[in-house]
Amino acid sequence: MPLTIAICDDNEEQTSALRSLLEEWSADKPFALMIDEYVSAESFLFSYPDKPCSLLMLDIEMSRMNGMELAKKLRGNGDMLPIVFITGYSEYMNEGYEVEALHYLLKPPDKDKLFAVLDRYVKRHTPESEILLETEEGVLHTSPDTITYCEAMGKKTHVHLSDGKIVSCGTGISGMRKLFGEDFVSCHRSYIVNLRYVRSIGKAEIFLDSGESIPISRRLYKEINDKFIEFYTR
Predict the structure, then answer these.
(1) In a shared domain, residues 86 and 159
(2) DSSP 214-228
(3) What is the CA 72 to chain-centroid distance, rounded?
(4) How far apart are CA 134 and CA 210, in angstroms?
(5) What's the total number of domains in the chain?
C-alpha cells in the first residue's frame, strides 16, 4: 500500500531538498512513496478533498494563510491528518502542540531526526489505525479508536466521536462496520457501536461510558452480549 506525503511550502528550493530526503528515506522501504507538492496553504486546501494524503509536511511562514492557520482549519473540521511542521521559527512550537502535530522540525531538517520521525509515523500509523471518511466538506482522517458509535440517518451516517461528530455521506452503515474492524458490532439496523465504549448492555438499550444510550435489537441481544464479554476477556 503506497504512502502519500504532501509537502506544503512556498520555497521551491526547500521543497526540492525535502523531497530528496524523503526519497532517500523511502529507498529501502517495502512500500511505494508518492509525494505531492503545494506552494501555498490555499492550493493544498483546494486539492485536498479530491487528493487526500497520509502525512502533511507543513511550513508555517507562508504568504496569506500560514501553515498554523491551515492546521487549525483542518482540526476545526474534525480532520486529524498527521502533520509534521518544518519551519525556521521555534516560537510556533506551543501552537504546534495545540493542533496535535506529529512533530516539529527546524529548518533545515536534520536527516537523522527526520528519518526517525518518519519511521515512528510508519510504525504507529498502520492501515488499521487510520481511516478516511467522506463528508460534504471533503475527506477527513480519523482513527476507529476515537469513534463511539454510528447512526444511519437517511443517506448519511452520523459518526459519533469521543469528542465530537462527523456526518459522512460516503460509506453506508454496514460498510463502516467492516471498515472499522472487529471491535465494532451491529446492534440495530441503523446503529453500529464500538465495544470499547460500552458500559453495559440492557435488553433494549446499550449504555455507553459517555452516559448516552443507543437501541439494541431484541434478536441481537445475545450475540452482542456475548461479543461484549469476549471483548473484555480478550
Answers:
(1) no
(2) EE--GGGHHHHHHHH
(3) 14
(4) 25
(5) 2
Concatenate the DSSP letters of all residues of 83-108 into one string: EEEEES-GGGHHHHHHTT-SEEEESS
Q: What is the pLDDT of residue 142?
A: 80
Q: How is residue 203 annotated by DSSP?
A: S
Q: Are residues 40 and 139 in the same domain?
A: no
Q: Which residue has the higher pLDDT, 179 or 110?
A: 110
Question: pLDDT of 24-51, one tens digit each?
Answer: 999 998 888 999 999 999 999 999 888 8
CATH code of the domain covering residue 60:
3.40.50.2300
What mean pLDDT, rounded, does the chain reach? 87
Report the distance separating Cα 131 and Cα 38, nearest Å.
23
pLDDT in tens, 58-106: 999 998 899 999 999 998 887 888 999 988 776 666 666 677 788 888 8
Angle at 220 (CA atoms; ends 214, 221), nearest 5 degrees: 70
By the 10 Å C-beta count (0-12 exposed, 13-18 middle, 19+ buried), 165 is classed as exposed
Instruction: Find the domain containing 177 and state its range.
Output: 131-232
Sequence-ordered alpha helix ranges (H) in 27-100: 41-47, 67-76, 93-98
**Domain check: are 11 and 109 in the same one?**
yes
